[in-house]
Amino acid sequence: ILLCAESARSEVRFGGFADVAFYATDESDLDSSSGFKLGQFVLHLNSRLSDRISAFAELTWTPRDDGYSTEVERVMLKYEHSDALKPSAGRYHTPVSWWNVAFHHGAWLQTTVDRPIAVKFGSKLIPIHLVGAMLEGRVFPAGFSVSYTGALGNGRASNIGRGGDTGDINNHTASLVQLGLRHDALYDLQIGGAIYLDRFASGIPTSEFDEQILSAYLVYSSEKPEILAEFFHVRHEERSSGMSAANTSYYVQAAYRLPFAHELFKPFARLENIDMDAADVALAEMVCYLDRFLVGVRADVASMVALKLEGRRFKEGDAENVNEIYFALNFVF
């Protein structure tokens, strides 16, 4: 679609993602059901407004039992002064997690069927969205590439699994600093981390908590192999009582693009863990302990079409092990 004015022309580019999967489980919970599942329908819109100014939006439609839930996942206006200086404002995926920035909505982007549980959409452990302003860039000293991100925005909403889209509920702005490092000699290897600070309100009766999230990542982004690992330390301190609690989570994922059959197949495996502090009343609804292991294979049957077969085994708290299997079709349009 071309939007034209007398002195300027803006081109809006559309693209998107969709997926459908077959799912089966041995879980006895009546809320669990096997069968075909439609994934999110994702729409991306990009517009170059000038040589240095661009706009972007990401919209999703998520299937529910009673229809579709529509969400503005990301929307931002960015000014690209240089590689080292790119200010923007809008709604983001919070860069406290490498995965949360590398793989947005659209399951085709990632090797596996789903995201790690700690950074799944709607996660209460890690704030997935941030509304505010961001400054990011990259500098290149002596063969290194150093990336940085600084952000200020609304903290968690009254539903702490969501960001504050209409304001900060306790007028205490969240802040974040993220750094990443790589070197020309081994450019596929990335290391980095982030710190996120906020104060949010939660619980009945409502209490205020100081929140500190520390994260670290190591990524080798080659297809031969692909290695992704992240660690999160989430600390909450209740301001009224001074009681504090610390939660940890990690995942390690490995994959390898096989050299035969036109490099069609990419086997993968992932181990992940969440260890919640039982004293953390801010996240009291979360299961105290979770282990999950998954293994599968991705087949890129066309440039924008992927088939994924994935088996999972997980355990929540003291419950029995649960086994699941997914067969997913992901595509781009």
Structure description:
- The structure is a single chain.
- This protein is mainly β.
- It has one helix at residues 98-102, and strands spanning 2-4, 9-25, 35-38, 41-48, 53-64, 67-79, 86-93, 129-139, 144-153, 174-183, 186-202, 207-220, 226-238, 244-255, 265-275, 289-302, 305-316, 322-332.
- Helix content is 2%, strand content 60%.
- It has a 16-stranded antiparallel β-barrel with strand order 2-4-5-6-7-8-9-10-11-12-13-14-15-16-17-18.
- A hairpin with a 4-residue loop joins strand 8 and strand 9 (144-153).
- The longest helix has 5 residues, at 98-102.
- The chain is globular.
- Mean pLDDT is 92; it is low at 1-7.
Rg (C-alpha, Å): 21 Å
| Global structural class | mainly beta
Task: State the major sheet.
Answer: 16 strands, antiparallel, barrel
Order of helices and strands: EEEEEEEHEEEEEEEEEEE
Low-confidence stretches: 1-7
Strand order of the largest sheet: 2-4-5-6-7-8-9-10-11-12-13-14-15-16-17-18
> What is the helical fraction, as a range of percent?
under 10%
How many strands appear in the DSSP assignment? 18
- Strand residue content: over 45%
How far from one another are the termini?
16 Å
Mean pLDDT: 92
Number of helices: 1
Shape: globular
